[in-house]
Amino acid sequence: xxxxxxxxxxxxxxxxxxxxxxxxxxxxxxxxxxxxxxxxxxxxxxxxxxxxxxxxxxxxxxxxxxxxxxxxxxxxxxxxxxxxxxxxxxxxxxxxxxxxxxxxxxxxxxxxxxxxxxxxxxxxxxxxxxxxxxxxxxxxxxxxxxxxxxxxxxxxxxxxxxxxxxxxxxxxxxxxxxxxxxxxxxxxxxxxxxxxxxxxxxxxxxxxxxxxxxxxxxxxxxxxxxxxxxxxxxxxxxxxxxxxxxxxxxxxxxxxxxxxxxxxxxxxxxxxxxxxxxxxxxxxxxxxxxxxxxxxxxxxxxxxxxxxxxxxxxxxxxxxxxxxxxxxxxxxxxxxxxxxxxxxxxxxxxxxxxxxxxxxxxxxxxxxxxxxxxxxxxxxxxxxxxxxxxxxxxxxxxxxxxxxxxxxxxxxxxxxxxxxxxxxxxxxxxxxxxxxxxxxxxxxxxxxxxxxxxxxxxxxxxxxxxxxxxxxxxxxxxxxxxxxxxxxxxxxxxxxxxxxxxxxxxxxxxxxxxxxxxxxxxxxxxxxxxxxxxxxxxxxxxxxxxxxxxxxxxxxxxxxxxxxxxxxxxxxxxxxxxxxxxxxxxxxxxxxxxxxxxxxxxxxxxxxxxxxxxxxxxxxxxxxxxxxxxxxxxxxxxxxxxxxxxxxxxxxxxxxxxxxxxxxxxxxxxxxxxxxxxxxxxxxxxxxxxxxxxxxxxxxxxxxxxxxxxxxxxxxxxxxxxxxxxxxxxxxxxxxxxxxxxxxxxxxxxxxxxxxxxxxxxxxxxxxxxxxxxxxxxxxxxxxxxxxxxxxxxxxxxxxxxxxxxxxxxxxxxxxxxxxxxxxxxxxxxxxxxxxxx
Length: 838
Fold this sequence. Notes:
Number of helices: 37
Structural class: mainly alpha
Helix content: 55-70%
Number of strands: 9
Radius of gyration: 53 Å
Strand content: under 5%
Strand order of the largest sheet: 1-2-6
């Protein structure tokens, strides 16, 4: 007993070492052999106590070993059995006895093991064939599970595995042979569904049957094979590998498409053609993933898509417009993506298909398709179509940049067309309408741009290019647009909010203008007319525009414009003091207001000495005396062309009106108190007003369809045959005694004629003079800071500082002038280097 106990303890130690290795166990371990032989001796008892619970297999096996370790001695067990009234006998055979006895025992047990394994395998094989052949099994699942376990416990797991694999492999080959009837038929679009249905029926049964077999051999799969040192695939992976090897023998490094791949692609193309496809498409695609052929099919599918849509692109791009092609491409990508999303579980499949189709349909077509009626697409302002085009292009590398380039070309082309063809009166309105259209496209279709800064800069560069095609004309017309907005006669302004919006729109165009000094010159002239003639819609609106211009260009730009308002405020103060002066001098109060201006702030006007009627002359003399008294004998110079007056006119008995007219118009009207008929020559001689001004004001007094007809021509029949200006110069004028108007006070509007050439020349001369001063200041400022500079460097730095377009030759002339005035000098050794003269 002592020797047996020692050997038992040795076996216990050996078994405890094997229990620590959960993944692999040597087939020849002592503990394992002992346990298996003990189970063989009591095989009949085990069959009555079989447990098919797969989750307790390991615990049961380990519990059996623990029973061997904690076994009490024989006498104690016998006493305990007698006490309980149950007789049990446990025999422990010593395998380390004499060699003869051990050898005989081993040979006997080996024969018993072999017979038992064959017996169990016969039962297992019969039931496996029954499952594969759709017959009823002869044994229960529990019985089959126990027999698998019994074979594994006898160290025959590898042999059992090989036999099972052979059966399944033969079954797979049998299924392959059943497919040969449809394999021989050439695959066409019409019969691809029959082939897929046949393949689907084969796969429908194979995983179900193999999974049932795997459940029977679960002990072999989870425990029996883990004790082998040779790594063996799990049963499910093995069955899927058999299916792959049998049905897809062509799959290798040198990949070739299988008939199933082609059939699946044909079925998908039929679905894209809006045909109903009755085939297990999703099931077969899942099968490819299960048997690890999904990557090969994905590669085949992408190759076919690439070839198909390359052909489609080649055929459709030359004959379709940009909008038509983008609509077609979006429809194809959307529908194919939906189909892939419905039938593919692999998350990368959808991304790969979309990427392939985007490359074939969009990326490779962008350089050509954007040239097909792209301008028509943008001109339509259909944000849905434009958004479709942009969203498709921006998903391709470089696609957004290409759209931006074509968008810039469209804006420049359309803008230059507007600048070239539109008349002066409509140019600014057309530019503003075009800008609103571009903003509508930007906010509605291009808002998803990855780089919105570049897109906005593209718009700015394009507008700046065509707006400055003719800088002087653009500056003049934009300034006149501001004049129209701020004029009291503007009928398009309904409230302050609409005026603010119109001003903001005009400021956008002003922002693109390079010749801002030209704009300032024209704006200053328009502002002076509004202030002098009191035709400004609102002082607050005027100051609001100045604030916006100051924000855009700085305080230096609006310095003179703000000075004009300061003069107007000072004139209001002088008007109050003048009233007090008249009261102090005991002179009658008159309705008179003089505007005293600083010549530096205001435009330069030619002052004409005219014959003032006696009704006005005394008042002007009184104000002149008052001003000398206030400012130390300073004299004033009257600009009658900027003055206005209110004339009370009696056209006939009972018809008296107040006419708000310019000074020239008032002087002309007062002449009709002396004589009923006047000609242009007589008016010029009597008033000393220039003939050009007389003609312009007579045209305004004659009026028209929408203007009051204060005067009329005496010889209507002869004047009708001549041009208006010619008839005015040669005709005679009388008061229109039949004048009718419901208003008591009538404002006589000036004739809106084209800016005279003389005024344009004056503006150009004024701008050039200011530019010369700015160039001189820039050169001196740079040289004072740098002390010494080469000619080329000085030219470049001056160009960077100046905010108006200027030629290098003009800068060179100003440099020569500064050298003559000793601001800078040339280097004695190198004439191309300038030095600052302190």
